[in-house]
Write a structure and sequence with these properties.
heterodimer; A: 321 residues; mainly alpha; MetI-like fold; flat; B: 350 residues; 75% helix; transmembrane (chain A); Carbohydrate ABC transporter permease (chain A); transport (chain A); cell membrane (chain A)
C-alpha cells in the first residue's frame, strides 16, 4: 500500500481543473479499454459454443459446405440432426438416446453413495472423539493428491479377480456382465470421489457451533440423532454443492467410464460414445454438433439453475485449503 | 425410430437395484446406530432397576462408547478408500517395477524406458508445456476478467459467460473446438472459424491439428478455455473480500486503477491466486480427455495421462503404464507441498 502518499484534500482537486479534466478523460478512456477487453474475452469465450449450437440446427449439406456464420444470410434450420443422432436407425448414427440413459444410470448412484458416506465420515471426523482421529483425517485429506491413474490398473483386476491378502479373501471377484457392469462404475466413482467429498463436507460440518452440539449431547441425543436432525439440515447447502460437483464430474467423465464401463452400448455413457464418434466419424459434423449438445444440455441446466451452490462449494473447497 | 424402451428395462432395473442398495446400506447403518445404543440403554435401565430392588450398590455409569459410533460412521468410507485407492496405489507402484504382464520383476527398466524412448520424452515435454502454459494463461485471463467486470453492469451475466465452459465436458469442449479448427481445401468454403479468419486475412487454410508443435498449443487453448472460468470465480470472490476501507483509502489517495491493481488488489488476493494456480496445475497434469478426443495423441500431441492409458489399456503394458502413473504422482507431490507450505505461512502471518 502506498501509505506514504499524502491524501489529496477535496478542495485542491477542484483548483487544478486542467489536470482533473485530463484525468477524467483518461479514466473514461481506461474504462472504455477495460470494457472493450472484457467484451472481447466474453465474445471469444462464447463464440465457439454458439457456432456449434447454430450448426447443430443446420441441414447436413449446408453444414458441410458453408460456415455457420452464413446461416444468418440464408437461414435454414432443421431438427433433423437431433432426430438422427438420438434415434437414428443405422449403427453409425449415434443412437444417443440409449447412451443418454446410460449416463443417467451411471450418474445417480455415483452421486448418492459418496455423498452419504462422506457426510457420515465427515461428521465422525469433526464431532466424535476417538483415538487417531486427526491422523485419519490427514490421511483421507492426503489421498486427494493421488491421481486416479494410480488406481486404474489394479482396481480393474480387483473386479475381475477379487482382492485377497495373504490367502484371506477381502472382496470376491465380481463376475459381472451386461447391465450389471454399472455397479463397477459406481464403485470406482464412489471411491475416487470420497477424499474430496470428506474434505469439503468436513470444512462445513466442523464449523457448526460447538455449543449447539454440546447442548444436544447434554439433552441425551445420540450421534446418529444429532447427525440426522441437526447436522444434515444445517449443512444442506454444502451437500448440494458436493452433489452438483460430483454430478458434473461423473456426467462429464471419460476416463473412468472408458475403463470400467467399456464401449458396449449397454453401459457406455454419452462421453464415451461421443469420443468414439469424434474418432471414427470426425467429419460427420451434423452428428457431432447435435451430439455434443445432447451431452451438454443436462449439465448446463443443472449448472445454470444451481450456480450459487456450485460457486459456494468451489470457494469452500479450494480457498480454505 | 429405433428407440425401444424394452432395451432400456434391464438398465433401469439395475438403477433401481443401485438405489435400493443405497437405501439399504445407508438406512441400515443409521438404523443399527440407533438400535444398538437404545438396546444398551434398556439393558442398563434393567440393571439399575434390578440393583435398586436388591438394595445392591448402583452399577457405575459407563462412558458412552464414542469409539464404536466412530467406527460405524467411518466404516464405509475407510473400507472403500482402502479397496479403491490405497491398495491399488501401492499395487501400481509395485507393478511399475514389473514387466508388461506383471509376472517378473524388472527393476527400474520401465523408468529407464520412459526416459530413453524418444516418443515418451516427447510426451513428457508436451506435459511440461501444458503444465506451464495452462495455469499461467488461464489464471491471467481469469484475473483480468474478474477485475474488469467487478462492479460492472450485468456482472452476473458477464461472469456466467466465462464460467459456462466449466459445465461442459472435456469431450464436448473438444468437439466444440475441433469445429473451430475444422479444415476445408483451399478451393472450398471454410467451415471452421479459425481457417475462415485466416482466409479472410489473405492466408491459406491449414490443417491445424496436424502441425506439430502448433497443435499442442491449440489443444492447450481448449484447456485454458475451460479453466479460466474457475480462476475467474475464485479470484472474483477474493477481490470482493478485500476490505472496503483499504480500497476507499487508496482511492482517496488518488491511486490510479493501474496502481490499485498492482499495489492493493494483487497482494490482497495472493493466497487465492496460489490456490488457483495449484489447482489448475494439478488438473492440467492429469489432462486426458482433450487429447484423446481431438488427436488421440497422434501428431506429437500425447501427454502423460494419455500415454498411461495407451500403455496399460491398449498395448497391455501394465509395467510401463504403471511407471507413467507413478511419475504423474511424483509430479503432483511438489506442487501440493508448495501449497501446504504456503498455507502454513499464511496461518502464521494471519
Amino acid at each position: 500500500m502506498t501509505t506514504t502518499t499524502p491524501p489529496v484534500a477535496a478542495g485542491s482537486q477542484d483548483t487544478s481543473g486542467r489536470s482533473t479534466r485530463a484525468s477524467r478523460v483518461r479514466k473514461r478512456l481506461n474504462s472504455r479499454t477495460a470494457t472493450l477487453v472484457a467484451i472481447v474475452i466474453a465474445v471469444v469465450w462464447t463464440i465457439p459454443t454458439f457456432g456449434l449450437f447454430i450448426s447443430s440446427f443446420r441441414p447436413e449439406p449446408e453444414l458441410k459446405t458453408t460456415g455457420w456464420w452464413t446461416a444468418f444470410r440464408d437461414p435454414q434450420f432443421t431438427l433433423q440432426n437431433y432426430q438422427d443422432v438420438l434415434f437414428g436407425q443405422s449403427a453409425s448414427s449415434g443412437q444417443l438416446a440409449n447412451y443418454f440413459i446410460n449416463s443417467l444410470v451411471i450418474t445417480l448412484p455415483s452421486v448418492l453413495f459418496p455423498l452419504a458416506f462422506a457426510a457420515l465420515a465427515a461428521y465422525a471426523l469433526a464431532w466424535i472423539n476417538f483415538r487417531g482421529r486427526d491422523w485419519l483425517y490427514i490421511g483421507i485429506f492426503a489421498l486427494q493428491i493421488v491421481p486416479l491413474q494410480m488406481a486404474l490398473v489394479p482396481l480393474l483386476s480387483f473386479f475381475s479377480r477379487g482382492v485377497s491378502l495373504g490367502g484371506v479373501t477381502l472382496m470376491p471377484a465380481w463376475n459381472l456382465d451386461g447391465a450389471q457392469n454399472f455397479a463397477q462404475v459406481w464403485f470406482a466413482h464412489t471411491c475416487f470421489a470420497l477424499p474430496f467429498a470428506v474434505f469439503l463436507l468436513h470444512n462445513f460440518i466442523s464449523q457448526l457451533p460447538k455449543d449447539l452440539m454440546e447442548a444436544a449431547r447434554v439433552d441425551g441425543a445420540t450421534h446418529p440423532k444429532i447427525f440426522r436432525s441437526i447436522v444434515l439440515p444445517l449443512v444442506a447447502p454444502a451437500l448440494a454443492a458436493f452433489a452438483i460437483f460430483q454430478f458434473l464430474w461423473v456426467w462429464n467423465d471419460l476416463l473412468v467410464a472408458l475403463i470400467f464401463a467399456g464401449g458396449s452400448d449397454v453401459t457406455a455413457p454419452l462421453t464415451v460414445r461421443l469420443a468414439e464418434l469424434a474418432g471414427t466419424r470426425g467429419n460427420e459434423w451434423q452428428r457431432l454438433t447435435a451430439g455434443a449438445f445432447v451431452s451438454i444440455v443436462v449439465p448446463l441446466l443443472v449448472f445454470l439453475s444451481l450456480q450459487r451452490y456450485f460457486v459456494r462449494g468451489l470457494l469452500a473447497g479450494s480457498v480454505k485449503g | 425410430m429405433n428407440f425401444d424402451f424394452a432395451d432400456q428395462a434391464p438398465k433401469l432395473m439395475m438403477l433401481l437395484w443401485g438405489l435400493v442398495a443405497f437405501a439399504v446400506v445407508v438406512g441400515g447403518l443409521l438404523f443399527v446406530l440407533d438400535a444398538v445404543p437404545a438396546h444398551f440403554a434398556r439393558r442398563r435401565e434393567a440393571q439399575l432397576v434390578l440393583a435398586a430392588a436388591n438394595g445392591a450398590p448402583l452399577p457405575r455409569r459407563t462412558k458412552p462408547r464414542d469409539g464404536l459410533f466412530a467406527l460405524f460412521f467411518l466404516l464405509p468410507t475407510v473400507l472403500l478408500l482402502l479397496i479403491g485407492l490405497v491398495v491399488p496405489a501401492i499395487r501400481t507402484t509395485l507393478l511399475s517395477f514389473m514387466d508388461g504382464s506383471s509376472q517378473n520383476w524388472v527393476g527400474l527398466d520401465n523408468y529407464r524406458w520412459m526416459f530413453a524412448e524418444e516418443a515418451i520424452l516427447r510426451v513428457l515435454l508436451n506435459t511440461l508445456v501444458w503444465v506451464t502454459l495452462v495455469p499461467l494463461v488461464a489464471t491471467a485471463i481469469g484475473l483480468i476478467y474478474a477485475v474488469l467486470v467487478d462492479k460492472a453492469r450485468m456482472e452476473a451475466v458477464a461472469k456466467s459467460l466465462i464460467f459456462m465452459p466449466m459445465a461442459i465436458s472435456f469431450v464436448g469442449a473438444s468437439i466444440i473446438w475441433r469445429f473451430v479448427y475444422a479444415y476445408r481445401g483451399e478451393d472450398q468454403e471454410q467451415i471452421g472459424l479459425l481457417n475462415q479468419i485466416v482466409v479472410s486475412l489473405g492466408g491459406e487454410p491449414r490443417q491445424w491439428l496436424l502441425d506439430s508443435p502448433l497443435n499442442t498449443l491449440l489443444l492447450i487453448v481448449i484447456m485454458v478455455w475451460i479453466q479460466a472460468g474457475f480462476a475467474m470465480v475464485v479470484l472474483s470472490a477474493a477481490i470482493k473480500s478485500i476490505p472496503a476501507d483499504i480500497v476507499e483509502a487508496a482511492r482517496l489517495d488518488g491511486v490510479s486503477p493501474w496502481q490499485m491493481f498492482w499495489q492493493i488488489t494483487l497482494p490482497s488476493i495472493r493466497p487465492a491466486l496460489i490456490v488457483v494456480v495449484v489447482t489448475i496445475s494439478i488438473a492440467t497434469l492429469k489432462v486426458f480427455d482433450i487429447v484423446r478426443t481431438t488427436t488421440n495423441g497422434n501428431y506429437d500431441t500425447s501427454v502423460i495421462a494419455n500415454e498411461m492409458y495407451n500403455q496399460a489399456f491398449r498395448y497391455g503394458q501394465n509395467g510401463q503404464g504403471s511407471a507413467l502413473a507413478v511419475f504423474l504422482f511424483v509430479l503432483v507431490v511438489p506442487i501440493v507441498i508448495f501449497q501446504i507450505r504456503n498455507l502454513r505461512q499464511q496461518r502464521r502471518e494471519g
